[in-house]
User: What shape does this take?
Amino acid sequence: MNPDAPQSKFNIAASSHWRDGSSLPGIQLTWLLALLPAIAAGMFYFGFAGLRVVALAVVASVVAEMVWNALVPNRDFASNYSCVTFGVLLAFLLPVGASWWLVVIGSVLTVIIGKKLYGGWGAYPVHPVALGYAVLAVSWPSRLDYTESLVGQAWSVTMVEPMRLVKTLGASAQVDFNLVDLFLGRQVGGVGNALVLWLLLGGLFLMLVREIPWQIPAGGILGVVACAALLGLVAADRSVGPVFHLLAGSTVLMIFFLAPEHTTSPVNPWPMFLYGLLMGTLLVLIRTFSVHVDGAIFAVLLTNFCSPLLDRITPSVVGREVQDVA
Amino acid sequence: MNFRQTLTHGLWRDLPPFRMVLGLCPTLAVTATAENGLGMGIAVTFVLIFSNMFISLLRKVIPDKVRIASYIVVIATLVVIVELAMKAFFFPLSQQLGIYIPLIVVNCIILGRAEAFASRNPVHLSMADGLSVGLGFSISLTLVGSIREILGVGTWFGMAVFPDSFEPFGFMVQAPGAFLCLGLLLGLMNAWSRRRGEFFIQT
Assistant: This one.
């Protein structure tokens, strides 16, 4: 480097055409690897009933994708595995005893409406899984009741969906749930959305291999904790504690898997943090004040729409600083 | 455009609301059932034919500077006629359509045809244009309404289509279902037109 040159504030990095060997299938396979602990735990807890939903959703997603590709030529191939990941994520949100047609319709909506119609992986404005699940939740709310699907489950815990009981009976009902049970995934939920520990393992793995940035989960957790703590001061009878919010329902799935989706999340560090913060805050607000039991999906949808706006918070322009020096 | 073209352009080439992408508010708001769509379409057709007729007759009289206000007066008169007639003869339907009947006054299709066609064409062409565009609008609204009603409720014009075990796809009769249905139909029409090599593709 020329010692006479003015002190540069440029970031020195490889050119944008430099290849590091990563690929689209590689990215999605990493995500699938991160989802494996939760799939295994789901099999352990629910037996083949849980695996059935996952397998059905994956098969339906892949078939939908291949049929669409045969009809409409495009460059979003089934071989990039994105439809497999979306199938697994959608299955995680469905109840264990979901009817086969519910799973199939949800998968087709996720792949066709959520992904393909916008132009494939990398082009959609909201997470396809969130969109697919939201359509199902609007159409057949009674079919998505987690509590009903786990009637035969012999656990020594309160067999009601935690957020639902808290919503019905008020915040004092949270004493019915042991936080350790919630953490181990022994709570009423979907095929995989409430297996907190196992999802957390996958999420930490994704963060360690730099597949997802740390800012989004950090912002999400901070948003949930801060908002729940603040609400605890003003509306103590309706608001449950921050830890309960983190462990109950789909919070972990949302923070580690739905929020950091590459297409729908912002690209710069500060916007990513704000994005997570906004999502966590919205989650607690929806859970506390709306009619919906678990607001994770709606928080994801709303925040996804904000990410282009958040991305306008860009780092300061490099050339301007050099001009100031001169 | 000659008479025959004027009479048919609203059925495919300029089919509202898909080609013109005007009049989206009633398309999205009142098409929860096929019956509502058809009723709205007929009301709009009536207003469109006669507003085109009066505006075409008066096109030499209306001063250019206040033409929009004058059109609105003509259209509002006709809408009041439709509204009162509907209340008298089709009361349940008028209750269903509610505020959207008076809102025909500000329907972009009617104002658009008045401005783009009736204000510069003779009476018989203007009326043919109103009939053609109105019919196209009625067909489109009935189609959107049918799709949404069949999937969302499981009936068509109130008749059951599916056996009792059918669980309706409730999303379709809600507001986002209307957007989805409209978008899919628009996309299909464009794909079909592109395949036939037609040039009037709505982008």
Summary: Chain B has one domain: 3-195.
